[in-house]
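User: structure tokens for this one?
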Amino acid sequence: MPLFIIFILYNSLQLLFLPFLPLYLFIISRNRKVLGNLPERIGIIPKANPANNNIWFHAVSVGEMLSIQHMLETINTRIANSATYLTVGTVAAKELARGQVKSNYLSFIPYDFLPCVLIAFARIKPSALVLVEGEIWPNLLIIARWKKIPVYMVNARMSTRSARRYRLLGMFARPLLKSFKHIYAKNADSRDLFTSLGIDADHTSVLGELKAYNVMEKKKHIEREMAVSRLEHATLEKEYQTLLVGSVHEGEAQVYIDLFSTLKKDQPCKLILAPRHFHWRENWKAMLDKAGLRYKEWDNSTDTPLDRLDDQAYADFNDCDVIVVAKLGILFNLYPVADLFFLGGTFVKVGGHNLLEPTVWQVPTCVGPYHYNSQDQVETLLKVNAIMVCTNEKELTINVGQLLADKQELKAMGQRAYEWLEYEATRVEKALNELYQYLK
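Assistant:
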């Protein structure tokens, strides 16, 4: 079906709902977390300098937004006269972007009503549009196509279920998908599904694990800011093994306290607990007291510098059994002193969190049965024997005890995980270099 017909049908359908729009805006305006900024939602967004090569990026939520932060920095430094314009879809993403993402302009994405989209294009005057993961809005794509603005999709995901829905809407969806100059799919399966929907294979390629590239760049930055050599030296010289549990949830803390209490009977070890939330502070103190473990807390009130590990920090390790890190934002700095990492949220039905950060420091990871948020990464690391998956607490105690006793295998597991991460990061960097050439 021609794009013009899709455009007419889509906007005609919107006109049918136009009488209800004021009521909708009134209802959601009482909840700013849903609405965000009304002027920006209707297209009155910050005006970009038309003299620049303005590259418009759109990322819906926090995860998508953080996945492109290094791309934005690279574009600003490598592409002459360029300016990055970032739009997001949630309040949380915009608030976080203000402090962590170096884009020249930041705004909410306007609603996909024709006037709103036309105003946004007029104020940004983009030379290219880059969508992250799978955010497809008909008016946004059609206007870009008519204005001859190239559109790209990065870290594009396509599941079998999504592909089935696109096939049902084939004559409507296929022309929209063909609006992209190039689609950089997250993996080969997603790329194959895009091509099965009629996308030319020459307009698709595999990007790889974008988060692997990001975490590698993050490590490079930390290495410049921290005395990493000292951290590695301290790890080698210490007479105990350090277990680090990140993003611990209230319902699983006892699992790791019991594990540590058992392990320390047979071998010297220390435990670092980094809770995901701090509202259950008295609970973890009670559990540690009951277990008879000596502990210290690192938080905003302590004298220990938490943005970097120094000699005082290592003295704290020596003076107690457990350190509880009750401060956000420093977990990444703790991986270099860990021998084994445990991914929180996997012994409760949370689904786990990011498991690539320990990997970049060559620290092997252990996960529990509920790791569905990182299922693809876990399956990939299992294929190269670079991760430990435990289905229950008994298995956890036995397997971890055996792994800690085999220091050679412990180190090798971390090395295998890092080699996979390095491969993915290199592949992503190669694909992104191609994209940067398009954006010049």
